[in-house]
Amino acid sequence: MATLIETRPQPFSFVGPILAASGAFLGLFVGTAQGAGLMGMVIGAAVMAALSWALMAMNLPRRPVRWGLAAVFAALGFVLGGLMGGLIGLAAGAFFDWLTFWLADGRYRAKLPPYLTAGQVLWHYSFRVICGAIFFFLIAPIVVVMPLSFNAEDFFTFTPEMLSLQPEGYSLKHYQDFFTSSDWQSALWNSLTIAPVATLLSVSFGTLAAIGLSQPHVPGRRLIMAILISPMIVPLIISAAGMYFFYSRMGLQGSYIGVVLAHAALGIPFVIITVTATLVGFDRSLTRAAANMGADPVTTFFRVQMPLILPGVISGGLFAFITSFDEVVVVLFVGSAAQKTLPWQMFIGLREQISPTILAVATMLVMISVALLATLEILRRRSEKLRGMSPG
Fold it and tell me: What distance in Å separates the CA atoms of residue 107 and residue 7, rounded to the nearest whole number?
């Protein structure tokens, strides 16, 4: 009985306004592209409201109707925006057709508890729409860079050939310029030289600090922890200025050692936080048992403790590597032209010569970041599994 109540048909007074609002949102983008955003919103709302009424009023076979509606939207999109517009229209038609029947049939309540009020159901889906919109506006500027990196012209905007998906509008010349330019290759080599060493130092010092601060008998450990993670909190420009004055007095300003130490200082807080989080679920009776069996502290650390906290150590190391590889402010203060890293070269390309090669480099950096984040997620799940297997 509950299922029948949850999936009962809904009236047009409920479905119509939702489809009209969705159509207005789509019409805003389409109208803006045509130079009339407000008119696009009005037309989009009217069209989607009328379309939802027609789909609900006429008892037609749904599958042919859905395919036909998608084809009509694709044709309109092709007329307004060429091949790219046709693909967007096809996706929009399929989505709005599905949304109409999903609302009209009451299937939006099928997987929800039957006791939820209308306001609670509205908030359930509104919250997800808000989160999706936030995610879209956060990720859209990053995603836009990727197709622009294949632009056949030296522009930072989409050309008509790209928008119409013509093959001559796309090229790999920006990637070729990156791999053949001495400036870019020198910057890449510096980044690949500095980041691993800085990561190694961050992992070593950060892991030892996290293990020491996890001991309850350490005096003032909260204050020490606050000091060690302060590079994450203090504005980067302040840290960079402080490092500049300190390293210049030490004779390390403008050297590889100075840049490596500066990047290590920025990466240590990430290692401390991730390793400390892993140590929360660590069973300390294992180390006491190893000591009772005659193992010295070093053997206990590498044979008992390290295998269990290794996912957290690797996660912190990946964060430290990303921080060092993407950092540009500190290296501008501490480094010199000989330590010009990849982000520094990108900054120069934006400020001085507006090189489109930046788009290709940015795309590769995004791909590297995605791969590292996927690795972090795998390590996080493995860490949770190991903590669940540990006694106590």
Answer: 5
Q: How far apart are CA 23 and CA 100, in angstroms?
A: 12
- Map residue 180 onto helix, strand or coil: helix
Q: Kind and range of the H or E element at 175?
A: helix 173-180
Identify whether the C-beta of residue 8 lies closer than 8 Å to the C-beta of residue 106.
yes
Domains delineated in the chain: 2-115 (no CATH), 181-389 (1.10.3720.10)
Burial of 368 (0-12, 13-18, 19+ CB in 10 A): middle
pLDDT digits (tens, 9 = 90+) for 167-188: 888 888 889 888 888 888 999 9
For residue 36, the number of C-alpha atoms closer than 13 Å in the C-beta half-sphere is 5
Query: Cα(33)–Cα(41) distance, rounded to whole angstroms?
Result: 12
Q: Which distant-in-sequence residues (6+ apart) come within 8 Å of 335 by Cβ?
A: 254, 258, 259, 341, 344
Q: Is 253 left (phi over 0), alpha (psi -120 to 50) or beta?
A: beta
On whether the CB atoms of residues 13 and 102 are closer than 8 A, the answer is no
Token couple for 123: 């908030």
Give the span between the Cα atoms of 227 and 231, in whole angstroms. 8
Going by C-alpha positions, the residue among 146, 203, 157, 153 that lies closest to residue 324 is 203
The answer to whether 299 and 290 are in contact (CB under 8 A) is: yes
pLDDT digits (tens, 9 = 90+) for 257-314: 989 999 999 999 999 998 888 877 666 777 778 777 777 777 777 777 777 788 888 8
